[in-house]
Each structure stands twice: as structure tokens, then as C-alpha cells.
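Lab meeting tomorrow. Please check the following:
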Amino acid sequence: MSTTRTDTVAAPRRFPLREVILFVALLVAVLGVYGVMGAAYSTRMLVEAACYAILALGLTIQWGYAGQFNAGVMGFVALGGFCAMFFSVPVNEAFWGSELPGELGVVLAYIVGAVLLVVGASRLDRLGVPKRLRTLITVVLAVVLYLVVISAFRDVAGQIEDQAGFIGGLGLPAWVGWIIGGALAGGVGYFIGHVCLGLRSDYLAIATIGIAEIIKAFLKNSDWLTRGTATVSPLPWPVPGPAEVGFTLARALYFSVTAVMIAVIFFLLHRAYHAPWGRMIRAIRDNEISAAAMGKDINKRRLEIFVLGCILMGIGGAVLASFNSLFDPQGYLPLNHTFLVLVMVILGGPGNNLGTIFGALAVYVIWLMSEPLALFVMELVVNFGEGAFGWEAPASLDSRALQARVFVIGLLITLVLRFAPKGLLPEKVKHVD
């Protein structure tokens, strides 16, 4: 009896020429910004780009790994920013030194009790109650309890705003708010996933947009909790601030923290991508029916990846809010915190972690520098027109240049989708012969 042995020869690993060229070009662009705009401005740009890179990594594992189109990034970023504020801002003695915490606790207990009663009423059919009667009882009970509880809650919230302004913070280190911000975003993502992951991708996008707007509206109108449009500042940093060591060094220290965070996240995601779990997630993305036929729990795995992405978005939002040292619920805009992150992932390459980091840095540099470059070009045109043709300079060039950001990003995404639809660093799919 003879046996045949087949040897598998690994293909030689190619030199990452494209990656080297792109990152060298990005480095040259960053050094150019340093030379033109100065160290303090450029370091701030790098810190903010690093925060957006964390957000983009959260989106790329949802969209790139699992094909889930989350258009509600803004909501999870806002949740992270809220936690960064709530847990790090100093304690408000005007609130905690009064009877208001006890009154608020009683109202919150009422809310929890009301929710439990409604949930219990929704399951009366298990005791033999007809389903139509159960539904009627649940709806009526929910309406009545809502009217009772919301009245008591508004009374306490009004007292908090009148006597203390708002609750204040807990005075804890900034990194505590970052961790809890990620956990809160993940918890909300778990709830959303249970409800929405059964929808088609386009309906999932619509649902996540709506939920993000609900989160923003809640934070904006909860003056007792967030000060609403009055904003909260300053937010403490986990490193020495500008007042202690100067703007440039403080921002450099903050950038070192974000760089370490990105390195850790990249390492963990890289290991997960190449592990059996990552291959299973991609198999579900590419052919859900075949994956289900192999006995994979589709819904569980899709929920896992959605929650993981939301956790990273919450962490990135918390880090960004702490760096800006400001929590402003009105400042969370779909253009800045959803569409921009989406462009970063598309440019870099969905599903490619290294490409996503490159896309985040490159797009943010373009986004930030398009305004001064547009203003420079406009001033050249105006000076030439005044000298050659006697043109009258238009008013508010600064605001006109600011709008150039939208044009430049729109043009960028159009060019990428036309000439590199899979991104500049597309996902590397290994084929087994």
C-alpha cells in the first residue's frame, strides 16, 4: 500500500511596498503641516486624528468584518463623551450636599419599578390571560405609569437645575470615564443589536441614525444631568495639562496615550481577525446561509461584533471629549462624527485595520487643512482679481473657506469610490487552493 503526501508550500511574503509608500507620503504631509502651522497646532491635529482612528476601527470591524452598516456612530461617540464628563468633572457640592440626591434616587426607583411592572404585564399571557387583553393591559399601564413618573421626575429635575445647576461629576480619573464610556456604548449597542440586527443593511442604517439622534436629543435636553446647551468644561486630562507643562508638551503626552491605545487595539484586532473567530465572522459576512449550514450561531456572532464596535466608538468618543476638555451635546453632528468616520474607513479599506488607521489620519489631515488651504487660494484669487480686473473682494472669506471642507471631502470620497472602491489598502483575502 502506498501513500501520497501533499506538501503545502507557503507563498513568499511580499514586501509591503504600497503600505510603505502611503505611510511615507502621510508622514511627509504631517511634517509639512508641522512646518507651516507649528508644533502646538500639529500635535493637536495628531491627537484628534488618533481619537478618530479609534472610532474608525470600531466602524471597520462592524462594516468590514461583518458587513453591518452602522450610521449612528455619532450616538455612541456622544455616550462616551458623556461618561468622560460625568466621571471626571469635580463633585458638585451644591447637589450632593443637599436632599436632592435622595429625592432623585426615589424617582429613579419609581422608574425602575414602573419598567418592571410593564415588563411583567407584557408576560401575562403565560398565566393564561388572552394576548389581546394582555396587550391592552400593558399599553394602558405603560401610559398611566409614564404620566405619573414623568411628573415626579420633572419636579426633581427642575429643583436640581434651580438649586445646583446640574448634578456634576464624580471627580474620578479620566480613564475611568473612558472605560465606562466604552461599557455604556457597548450596553446600548447590545440593546440595539437585539432589536435591529435582524433588519436588512439599509434598514439597520436608518435605525441606527434614529437612535443616535435620540441619544443626542436626550443629552441636549437633560440640563439637570449634562447642563444641555450650557456645556461643561474644563474636563480633566489623564496627563499633565497645558497649564502645567505648556500646550505642545501636554498635547504630546496626550498623543502618546492615544498612540499606545491604538497599538493595543490594533494588536488585539489583528489577532482576532486571524483567529478562528475572525474567520467565522468573515464567513458569515460573505455567505450567511453557508455559515448557518455549518452550525454557526449567526445572530450571536453578529451581535458580538456589533457590540465590540460600539465599545471602541464609546472609548474613542470619551478620549476625544477629554482632549477637547469640553462636553457639548450640540457639538455631536452626523457630518463630523458619522460621515467623516465613514469616509476614513472607505479611504483606508473596510476590514483592513492598518488601512483604517491610515485612512483616519489622512482624512483628518485633509479635513483640517482644507480650510486654511482654501482660504489661501481664495486670497490669491482675490488679490489677483483686485489688481488685474478691479474685482471687489467678497465678504466673509473665512466662512466660505470653512465650507470648502465639505467640498474637499465629497470630492475625495468620489475619487476613491471611482478609482479605489475597496480602499487604498484593501482587505487581504487569502484564497486556499
Remarks:
- Residues 62 and 248 are 35 Å apart (CA to CA).
